[in-house]
Amino acid sequence: MTEHTIQINDAPIAQTLSAVELLARQIADYFKQKRPASIPNQVYEAISQLQTQIAILNQRVSHLAQEKRQLSALTEVSQVVNSSLELDDVLQVVMDTIIRLTQAERGFLMLRDEYGNMVTRIARNWEHESVDATEKAFSRTVVNQVIDNGAPVLTTNAQQDPRFSSQESIISLNLRSILCVPLRVKSVVTGVIYADNRIHSGLFSTHDLDLLAAFANEAAVAIENARLFASVRETLDKVTELKNLMNNVFDSIASGVITADMEEKILLCNRAAERILGLTSLQMVGQPLQSSLMPLSALLEPELEKIRSNQQPIQGLEARPTLPERGQVDLRLSLSPLNGVQHQSPGFAIVFEDETEKKRLEAQRRLFERMVSPAVIQQLNPEKLALGGKRQQISVLFADIRGFTSFSETLQPEQLVSVLNRYLAAAADAVLREEGTVDKFLGDAVMAWFNAPIPQPDHSLRAVRAALSIRSAIIALHAELPPSSQLSFGVGIHRGDAVLGLVGSERRLDYTAIGDSVNTARRIQENALAGQILITQDVYAEVADAVYAKEATPILAKGKREPIQVYEVIGLR
What we know:
Elements: H1 11-33, H2 41-83, H3 87-102, E1 106-112, E2 118-125, H4 140-149, E3 153-155, H5 168-172, E4 177-185, E5 188-197, H6 206-252, E6 256-261, E7 266-269, H7 271-277, H8 281-284, H9 289-292, H10 297-310, E8 314-319, E9 322-323, E10 327-328, E11 331-337, E12 347-354, H11 356-371, H12 374-379, E13 388-402, H13 404-408, H14 413-433, E14 437-442, E15 445-450, H15 459-478, E16 488-504, E17 509-514, H16 516-526, E18 533-536, H17 537-543, E19 547-551, E20 566-572
Parallel strand pairs: 16-18
Antiparallel strand pairs: 1-2, 1-5, 3-4, 4-5, 6-7, 6-12, 8-11, 9-10, 11-12, 13-15, 13-16, 14-15, 16-17, 18-20, 19-20
Helix pairs in contact: 1-2, 2-3, 2-6, 3-6, 14-15
Protein name: Protein containg PAS domain S-box
Domain PAS: 242-303
Pfam families: GAF, Guanylate_cyc, PAS_8
């Protein structure tokens, strides 16, 4: 804190009066020793009176000079305390000045805290140092009286003052001269100034009391201003902290957020909005929405007009604009009015959800679901993918297009794929209607199974129904295709154990079924004629009551030592 020194120079007047008083004394002494007879008695009396009057005048000048010094000091201190809004600095200047003016030994300044209690804010001694904790005891009786009555207290000797002489603190602390005045703001006592001296009696006068009371009023205002400033600064710090927190929260929001006024001038945007739109805040803030969001202006303008008219939020808008920095993106937008005073909105907010990646993943999933059964997909846990599988009894269906090899020699590849896809789609749809799993397409053949991954007690019957549906679908397809493109499937179905799981490598996986039951179903299919559905003895035993079938010639399948008994399915009962 800056050291303030108050200087008052009345030396010329005091020196002149002292010189005149000395001269008068010398003249009087001269006449006492050598009194000329020619000088009348009146002259001697006049000189004696002049000496007395000069002494009185000198005392008055000295007293006035002291008052001037005190008033000048108070004026300067008032300027100091009113020029600072730092409460601790103000308190220290006030207390040091009081001690200097009153020649007190100690000074205490107490203020009300937030609970209304008087708390010592500063305690100083005549050396302009903070009072040691062991020396902070003072007369609370005097302080409480000032607080309760709102009137100043002066005692020249508290030990003999009947108001306080019986108080224990006065006696134990050996207090003598005490001066205590209230601090008032708008007639409310907000604190007290207390000064004392434990050595000298009669140190303070009524003049000191009046002077200190006048100063206390101005000091109280300065202290209150400093307290208000500290409170405002604390509030501002909290507001700043809250604003920084809100900015951090605003920037951490994953969704893009832009706020604009009713004239559609952008006020704020967060980092997510910058990332989604491919623009910086410098390019957007302060600019019209139409120029910053040109690809979205056609969508936004009518919706913003609705918000102006009805002040209701709008959600779930979808847009697929082409942005200069990102290309085509998928966005989901929500618009809402900003809350204002008296239901008058100062603007609106636009929230952007970037669904580009989500849409891409959804498209990939839909494609994956067309390649792999949705039931299989649901069984896969991306967190626990591992090669291998589990043993499961299934019904395996193989369906192969007959005559496709020779047919492919007559068409261009593009035409061939187009026709092939129609036949394979008919077969796959028939399998999926029976909740089977299409394992894969093997050129012009389809492999599917039933009873996995979802258990199906009637899986063999489902496989047979799927085969009959394939045959019916092919007949319907022939009505749409030219005779040259009319082909047929041969179908083989077998029931048995297989291992279902992931095969391949960590970079390329395939979810499939492996086992002798799969090979047997394929061998049966290879021996089926166009439009023929062959099933093994095991399958027939499960579906005999539900289908019409006839025994067919046993098949000598490759890799089998014994012929395989098969049945041709005619239809459902």
